[in-house]
Amino acid sequence: MRPVIPYVTAALLFGLGGYGVLRRRNAVLVLMAVELMLNAVNLILVTADTTVRAQLPHAGQVFALFVIVLAAAEIGVGLAIVLQLYRLRASVAVDEVPLTERPSAAGTEQTATAGEVIR
What phi and psi values does residue 93 have, to the nearest 5 degrees? Predict the structure, then answer.
């Protein structure tokens, strides 16, 4: 097997995923682009495992399984964050997410009890 074709395909998939992460505003599409990048890494690991003779047999395939588990965990946590963002803001646009807390007005400190959200 010529390893050039899978390596070029993986590079194209990774580049497409990187473009999706940098250019998309929708959080779900950003997560899909990250998944595309992880699949490109899996393709490289399996191709390297089949073409390179290593001391450990099937090490690339084992690492690919670890990446699949990592991707499943990332999707679970990522979708939970996206759903909570949609509930709070009614939008999943990444560029509208506040990265810092708003400063409260002087003298009007609000405190929240357990289970209560300050808006």
Answer: -75, 125
Structure tokens at 37: 């990048």
CB count within 10 Å of CB 33 equals: 19
Q: Which of 60, 19, 18, 20 is closest to 43 using CA atoms?
A: 60
Contact 24, 30 (CB under 8 A): yes
Is residue 27 within 8 Å of residue 82, measured between CB atoms? yes
Residue 59 neighbours by CB under 8 Å, 6+ apart: 49
Within 10 A of 84 (CB to CB), how many other CB atoms are there?
10
Q: What pTM did the predictor assign?
A: 0.72
Long-range contact list for 85-88, CB < 8 A, 24+ apart?
A: 85/27
pLDDT along the chain (119 residues), means of 10: 87 95 89 93 89 78 89 90 83 77 63 59
Residue 40: other Cβ atoms inside 10 A? 21
User: Coil, strand, or helix at residue 93?
Assistant: strand
DSSP state of 95: G
